[in-house]
Amino acid sequence: MEFDIRPYNFASATLAWLILAGVLAALGLGLSLVLSVARNGKGGIAIFSSGLVGYLNDILSISPRRILALTQLTLKEAVRRKALLVFVLFAVLLMFAGWFIADANERPELQVSVHVTFLLTAISWLILPAVMFLSCWALPEDIRIRSLHTVVTKPARRLEIVIGRMAGLGVVTLFVLIVMGAIGLFWLTRRIPDSAKSALNCRVPVFGELYFISSEGQPQEVGLNVGDVWAYRSHILGNSRARAVWVFRGLDESCLTRNAKGEEELQLECRFEAFRTVKGSERSILQGISAQYTLASNPREEAFGMLAQSETVRPFADALRDGQYRNASDRLKQLTERMRTAPGELRPADYFGLHFGLLVSGSVLQYKKDPRLDDLAKLLMDASTAGQAVSEAQRTVENGGNAEIPYAAFADSLDLIAKALVEKSSDLMEALPRLEVPLASFHVAEYHDGDEDSTNLTRVPRKLKFVADYETLGRFLSVTVDDWNGSGRLLEGNAFKASLTDDLVKEAKISQLNAERLVEVLNEQLSGGSLVIDGGKLKVADNRSWFVFFDDLIRREALVSADTQGWMIERDLLNDVAKNGELRVEVACINDQMYLGMARPDLFIRKADQPFWAGYWKALINIALMLLLIIVLGVTVSCIVKGPVALFFTLTFFIVGQFFHDFMLRKLDGIEKGMGTVESAVLIAQHRNPEVGMDVSETAQNVVRAADKSLEGVLWVFSNIVPDFTIFNRAAAFVENRFDVPLGDVVLPAVVVFIGFLIPCILIAGALLKFRELESK
Amino acid sequence: MSNAVIEIRNLSKIYRDFWGRKKVQAVKSLSLDVMKGEVFGLLGPNGSGKTTTMKMLLGLLFPTSGEMTILGKPASDVSKNERIGYLPEESYLYRFLNADETLDFYGRLFNMTAADRARRSDELIEMVGLGKARRRQLKEYSKGMTRRIGLAQALINDPDLVLLDEPTSGLDPIGTREMKDLIHQLKAQGKTVVMCSHQLADVQDVCDRIAVLFQGELKVLGRVDELLELRNEMQIRTTNLSEEAMADVRKVLEKHNVKDVEFSRPKADLEQLFLRTVRESGERPGRRFSTEEVAASGKGGNV
Question: Rounded CA gap, A34 and A44, in Å?
Answer without folding.
Answer: 8
